[in-house]
Amino acid sequence: MSGQDAEDFGAENLSDKSQMIATLPPYDMDDQLLPREPRSAWCCLAWTLVVVTMNSLVFFMNLILLFVIFTIVLLPTIVVVYFGFQCHSRVLHSAARYCKSILDDNSSSALIILGFVIMSPLIVVAMAIYCSLARRLRLFMCFQPYSRAVYKGVKWRWYEEGGLCSCAKGWNTQVKAWV
Question: What pLDDT score does 152 carry?
C-alpha cells in the first residue's frame, strides 16, 4: 500500500462514542477460562476409559446407521448387478430358469452396466439422507471431549444442551442445507 497510512482511511475520524460500543462478554462462572483442577492418575485413567467407551459406542452407532441407510438405498443397484453377473455366461452362468428364458449375455451386460450407472446418484442420495438424519438427531454432538476425563467439573455435553445428544431440545426447522 505505497505510502498510505491509517489516517487515509479515516480511522482518526471515529468518534469516542463509537469506540466505547464494544463491551465485555457476559460474566458466567461456568464458562470462565480459569485453570481447572486435574484428576489423579487412576481417576484420569478410569474417566478416559469411560469417555473412550462412550465415543466408541457413538461411533459404532453412526456406522451402523450409515450401513443401514446405504444398504436400503443401494438395494436396487445390488439386485440389478447381482442378476447381471449371475446370468452372464462368462461370469457365473446360472442354470436358473429366468437366466435361460429371459436373460441372455447382452441383457446381462446391460443389467451390469445399468447397475453401475445408477450407483452414483444413489450414493449421493444415501449420503444426503444420512447427513440430514445425523444433523436432525445431532449425532455428532454425542461425542465427548477428552477434557472430560482429564479435569474435574467438566459437564457432559448432552447434559448442558438439554438431553441425550440434545435430541430433547427439538428440531430446528429453520436450518436449511444444500447437499
Answer: 72
